What does this fold into?
Amino acid sequence: MLHQFLQKIIDPHDTNEGRVIAGIIIPDYSQLFQEESKLAEGITGYKIMRDQSPFLKCLYPKEYLSDNHFKVFEATQNFKIDTCITNQIKSTHTAFVALDSLKSVLKIKKAAE
It folds into this structure.
């Protein structure tokens, strides 16, 4: 879609005066990374607490101390991760575009002004 849009700006009449080689829009996966890091943190905390019993159990989250609470936490985080993956992808408003010549760059710059 980006490729075709830029190609129409550069060469609207197909006269082969310039070409878009590639265009990629970078998606925003920040929410997905946050949910995955929460899951990894929870798994690490659970493993540490399971192997070594803490001195003050009242200071630690339930997910780290109880198998049932951990399973609920893990299922919830996996659901959030799946939701992030299946939602419509948001753009970061960043794209990488490869053009064949400086003339193509100038045409796009002129169209943007």
